[in-house]
Each structure stands twice: as structure tokens, then as C-alpha cells.
Amino acid sequence: MAGALGLWAEARALLPGSEEELSLALSGEVDECVPPLLLRARALLYEAAPPCEAALRRLGDVLRDYAWEKLNAGPWRDVSKAWRQVYAYGCLFGALAEVAARRPLAPAVRLCDMGLLMGASVQDNVLARLVRLLQAHLPRADRRGAAPSSAKRARTESPPAPVVRPEDTVPHERCPSLEHFRDRYLIPQKPVVLEGIIDHWPCMKKWSVDYVRQVAGCRTVPVELGSRYTDEEWSQKLMTVNDFINQYIVNENSVGYLAQHQLFDQIPELKEDISIPDYCCLGEGEEDDITINAWFGPAGTISPLHQDPQQNFLAQVFGRKYIRLCSPQDSENLYPHESQLLHNTSQWYATSFAWHLPARNTLHKSISLRINDSSRKG
User: Fold this and answer.
1) I need a labelling partner for 153 at 20 to 30 A (CA). Which of 60, 94, 278, 292 fits?
2) CB-CB contact of 197 with 277 (8 Å)
């Protein structure tokens, strides 16, 4: 009992000291029935210690269900930030209710992750701070996740590298100066392999399948199911990192891919293992404008030929990718899809510096850093 009350006190300490300080201001208008629900949930948090968990859980359920309908009513880009904030508050109240009820913490961790994935930041990103606290209190087996007894060890051996003709090889540079990189590659928009840039990153020595289990095994992430996102059977599913590893990395029952996900925003512990290269400062905007995505998957995944809206730095932590590049001048010959949803994707399976096709030959973990660059405009 004392331990459970201590955890509640730690969780409660993440919120402002008084009810009035916990502002529930939203970024836009919502239905008039929502603000009273938010106010009632806030009042419960300050009425008793711990609060009435049943009432707090009901309010969290109602807020999440109501906001969920709004989140799925149309294209994601048209979803109001205010409704994403409402959903985040519903996840926050639900997670706190689980803590107050002294129940197993895995459902509370999942609620925090759902708020981080589908919601918008509230209360100085309190969900990220709360899930880090809860994760530290999980039993070790729940925190790390366990592989099934029948699971095989993840295969990391590399098949022979594809043969590339010398005239088609992308140039390699070892730690070029910023000026050299800018003038020779960034401004002319030419691809280059930069060597020795990430050798000092802690992830280069620390990261493995077991390490990812240890740090993030209990966390919920979006996983792409299928080899290509253009295939009819392609879909997405939310699952824990541990379930993803067991089903798609270790046993390889089918193709699943943790792709283009801002994992480091969701799990800052992993971000501590990387650094932003100085070359990224050559882009427009501030460091916070750099988009950092994670890619983690088995052999056999293929991204169709496509064009990204920003310049990319691709960092390969382990495993191997084969990437075929096509010149931007060939864009009109690459048959992009006519639909707005796939307008940046070719109907032909091969690619460029503006268009590129990554094929993964082995189990792999990589990171992309995207910067804005005025040289690509016009």
C-alpha cells in the first residue's frame, strides 16, 4: 500500500500544485459538452489523494471516445489540434486512474503511448514524463518483455552485397568540412556517403535487438504490415515493441516494419544515444525543426520508389540497406501515382536523389534526419 501511494504521489507531483494552475486551455474550439468534463476530471485530481479512480476512469473513457470520433472523421491533416489535446487529456486522466487504483501499470503505459501517438502535447508534455515514471516502476519482466521460449535468435548475418558498377557508385567522403559538403553536394543536390560521422554515437555500440527490448519493450508503436505501402494488403497496427520483435524480427512469420516513426520523441531514452550532425545546421530553420525518424525491420521490406519533401541524412546503425537513386531530372519518366495520397510515389519499382528506393537486405535499424533546404524550391 505504501509503495502504491508513493507512486501516486510521484505521479501527482508531475502536475501543477493547485487546481487553478492546471490550465485546460485548448488550441481551438470543441463541442460545448467537453470543457465541463475536463473541469470535472481536474477537480477530482485535487479533491483527495488518491482521487476517486472509478469516476476519473469514466471521465477519461468518455473524453477519449468522444475525441476518437473526431480524430477519425477525415484526413489527419484536417484534425484540429484542440481535439488531439482533448484525446491526450483523456489518456492522461485514464492513466492516472490506473495508478490511483493500484493496478498493474502496463495499461497505464499504453494509455500514455496512445496519447503521445494520437494526441497533442499538454501540460509541458506531461504524458512523456508520466510514462517514463511508470516504466521505471514496472516489474523488470514487463518493462523488458520476454521472448517466447520457442523464439529463434534474430538473424543478423548479411548476404552478399549487390554488385554496383563503378560509374554508378555514390561518392564517399570522410568527415568533409561544412563548406565542402555544402558546395559539392547540398547546393548541387548530389548524393554522397559520409563516413566517420556517426562512429562516436553511443547507439553504434549499445543498440541491439535485446537493448531495444530492454529500453522500449513495453511501449506501444505503429507497425506497418506488408512489404510495400502500395500493396493492397498493406496495413498498420499498434503493438508493443516486444510483440513486434517476437512476431516480425525473431520469428519472421510475416513482414512487419516500424517505419518512419518519430520514436525519439516518444521514447527520449533512445534519443540520448544519438547526436544531430553539424551538417544539419546547413538547412533552414532551427534544430527543433529537424524531423528525426526511426526505421526498424527485418530483411525483405521494400519502400517503393518515392520522393521526400525534405533533404535526408540516413544513418545506418546496424544491418544493411540497398538504395537505388535516380536523378531528379528523370522525374517525369518515373510515372508517379495520380492520386493525391501517393503523388510522391512512382508506379515503377526503382528510384532518385529526389526519388529513391530502399530495399532492406538484412535485419536493420536506421535513423533519418530531414532538414528544410531552400535549394530545392522553385
Assistant:
1) 292
2) yes
pTM above 0.85, yes or no: no
| Residue 200 cell numbers, joined | 562516436
Rounded to 5°, the CA angle 235-240-244 comes to 60
Residue 111 CA to residue 127 CA, distance in Å, equals 9
Residue type at 198?
I
Nearest to 314 by CA among 161, 174, 194: 194
DSSP for 161-207, please give it: PPP--GGGPPPEEES--HHHHIIIIITTT---EEESSSTT-THHHH-
CA 37, CA 183: separation in Å to the nearest integer?
A: 57
State the cell numbers at 146. 520476454
Sole residue written with cell 473526431? 70
C-alpha 293/C-alpha 275 separation (Å) is 13
d(CA 43, CA 19): 7
- Distance set, CA 128 to CA 99, 118, 177, 313, 331 (Å): 15, 13, 37, 26, 41
With 90 as the cut, is the pLDDT of residue 347 above it?
Answer: no
Phi-psi region of 14 (alpha: psi -120 to 50; beta: other; left: phi over 0): alpha
Distance CA 340, CA 144 (A): 41
Q: Dump pLDDT digits (tens) for 266-318.
A: 998 999 999 999 998 888 777 777 888 888 888 777 777 777 777 889 898 98
